[in-house]
Specification:
Helices cover 34% and strands 15% of the residues. It is of the alpha+beta class and 258 residues long. The chain folds into two domains: 4-111, Roll (Ubiquitin-like (UB roll)); 114-254, Fumarate Reductase Iron-sulfur Protein, Chain B, domain 2. The strands form two sheets. A five-stranded mixed beta sheet has the order 2-1-5-3-4. The protein has a two-stranded antiparallel sheet with strand order 6-7. α4 runs antiparallel to α6 and α6 (178-189) crosses α9.
Length: 258
């Protein structure tokens, strides 16, 4: 006899959200994405009513793109790596709840608009500018230790799980969030990117910057890529403080000094 489980989804649009349940057959290896695909193919709810198919975002299906972020049993994570069997075993219940992120504007069902995160990445200039050095051969050498440190930071996929879990990220706060601050650390570490470090640091001095971290440390608990976000926050707090003293006591021609 086949086993079944229930997907309880908080869906709808702003001002009209409601819980709707779908009963599905449990299959080996199923994850939340495959479960949602089953609902999409046959959108019959628990009461036997045919309803509008649930909408969500997905992309790589291997926890690299960060698009399928949602609250699964109340925890922010990626739906593509959330296995049905593991969720049931962990919770001890055959009911799995899905809900959209609460810290970003709702579009519909499980889709939210995470544009703010991308705008915050622009603020800290989360990129390496082309400086023409590529025509001169290889760039500056980077030690193995620094490469390993930068690689971990570079795995950020802008999934926004850290922001969703952070109590400082809310409608009354301008806090930029853990991910952009950690990315500032990444690009400040890069041999070419560090030329823009003073500008990044000054951005993090403004309202919403690193000083508004409340040290809840939720971010590092939910990051799917295990990025040391609390370490990044501490490092950038130190860099920003040093930048403030430099701006007071240094002349412009000393700006690149370490």
């Amino acid at each position: 006899m086949s086993e079944h489980y229930t997907l309880k989804i908080y869906r709808g649009v702003k001002g009209h959200q409601y819980w709707e349940e779908f009963v599905l057959e449990k299959k080996p290896g199923d994850n939340i994405i495959s479960a949602l695909m089953e609902v999409q193919k046959n959108p019959i709810n628990k009461d036997g009513e045919r309803v509008t198919p649930v909408v969500w975002e997905q992309g790589c299906l291997e926890e690299v793109c960060g698009s399928c972020s949602m609250l699964i049993n109340g925890r922010p994570r990626q739906a593509c790596t959330a296995l049905i069997d593991a969720l049931i075993k962990q919770s001890g219940s055959n009911v799995i709840t899905l809900a959209p992120f609460s810290k970003f504007p709702l579009i519909r069902d499980l889709i939210t608009d995470r544009s703010k995160l991308l705008e915050d990445l622009k603020k800290i200039q989360a990129w390496i500018e082309q400086d023409g050095s590529f025509i001169s051969g290889f760039g500056p050498k980077v030690s193995q230790t620094k490469q390993e440190q930068m690689y971990v930071l570079s795995t950020c996929m802008s999934c926004a799980c850290c922001s969703e879990s952070c109590p400082q990220v809310n409608e009354k706060s301008k806090f930029i969030g853990p991910a952009p601050i950690s990315q500032a650390r990444l690009f400040n570490t890069h041999p070419t990117g560090k030329m823009k470090a003073p500008e990044r640091n000054r951005e993090l001095m403004t309202e919403g910057g690193v000083s508004e971290c409340g040290n809840a440390q939720n971010c590092v608990q939910v990051c799917p890529k295990k990025i040391p976000l609390t370490e990044s926050l501490a490092v950038m707090g130190k860099q920003v403080s040093k930048q403030a003293f430099k701006d007071i006591f240094s002349s412009p021609d000393q700006e690149d000094d370490t």
